[in-house]
Amino acid sequence: MENKKEIIAGIIVIGNEILSGRTQDTNTSTLSIWLNSLGIKVQEVRVIPDIEKKIVDTVNDFRKQFNYVFTTGGIGPTHDDITASSISKAFGLEYGPHKEAMSILEKYYKPGEFNEGRQKMAWMPTTANLILNPTSGAPGFNVENVFCLPGVPSILKSMLGGIENNLVGGDPIISKTINLRTVESEIAKSLSKVQNDNQEVDIGSYPFFRAGKLGVSIVLRCPDINKIEKCNLEILNFLKDKKIEILENI
Amino acid sequence: MENKKEIIAGIIVIGNEILSGRTQDTNTSTLSIWLNSLGIKVQEVRVIPDIEKKIVDTVNDFRKQFNYVFTTGGIGPTHDDITASSISKAFGLEYGPHKEAMSILEKYYKPGEFNEGRQKMAWMPTTANLILNPTSGAPGFNVENVFCLPGVPSILKSMLGGIENNLVGGDPIISKTINLRTVESEIAKSLSKVQNDNQEVDIGSYPFFRAGKLGVSIVLRCPDINKIEKCNLEILNFLKDKKIEILENI
Fold first, then answer.
1. Which of A154, A227, B54, B110 lies 20 to 30 A from A79 at CA?
2. Do B78 and A186 touch (CB under 8 A)?
3. ipTM of the complex
């Protein structure tokens, strides 16, 4: 288990609507939770505007830094959908109608309804691998370690199953949460000691408000369940000494 | 109006809990909407882990690129709260107890309750300007063009009013939304023509599902209301020709 190396990913959220605050991004947490379950850790997310140079530069930066890169948004039929042409440019690949994508979309629409706008959704790097879309026809695509998905959350979700076999993950990251009726400053020093003694477990501390009362979630994350259990015990010990109420330990 | 230059901002969301998918970030849209209202456009958002080098590098990159930089998260009392020390490092400033912050927190807590964990919340660049926190005492801080805010959404919101006077915005960005009962591919070509003829208006097109039916939102954004109205008219004209139902034009 110790020999498996960490597999990391980056997410690029493409779209002015997220930067303007008009739309709340939810794809990041969908992708992160799904990737975690495959043993892939999301290391960075960037939200960038619909500007070709920005997309090209970010994709080229990310695909060298991370094992996998996921983009969301910008693959529809309108003028502001420039992800496919930008990815072609980033990889120096021909941008044009993708044979298989054209054939999928031709069958998807009624005769005479496969208009110019819809045909644009089949334009991408002509050598890309398709990511099938069971919800609305228009496929995403994959070039090397970069996977391009749509921005509409329900459609994105429906496409993830089709990619899983193309991803090689590490050990799945296990997490444990301890919810407490306390405030962070009461446990900060003891928790810091536990973190120092357990460097391989990633310990997070997050304040919350619930039913009008303050609380803290301690979250332990590590691929090794034994290391999590050891950490958990050390935390339970200091909580007992401090007489702090445990709401959940899950 | 034409002479005012565009004022741009970057947001750095600091926290493993967002990258793991455990917590859904909502601060980005809060900050973006608020900044828009001040005539400041958010140009990029990065979500990064609680790793000092990553925070230092991202802050130093952003503060040169953007007029204003906002960080969220990592200013609490626990071991994973490393924003204040990282910002000190990024600017080459002394990290230590901030006199005014110490005095605020001393008054905020009952005698004897201002423990080590709580004192840590007053540690920051010693020369920073404070951002007052009307909700929970512990202040944020500002160094040059970088503003450091907490991660808890309700606390962050309560602190924005205190910063407004320190920000110089451009012309407020006005937006107009036209919601349609159609699909993107029906309007793609005509909308593309309108965008080409109105380069200064940022036109976005976003598909949606509502009450089980497909629709499209067209969003026009520009500081100049006249340019938006001209665009709006051109769009209404082609919608009429195409007999597309308008749900809202607001």
1. A154
2. no
3. 0.91
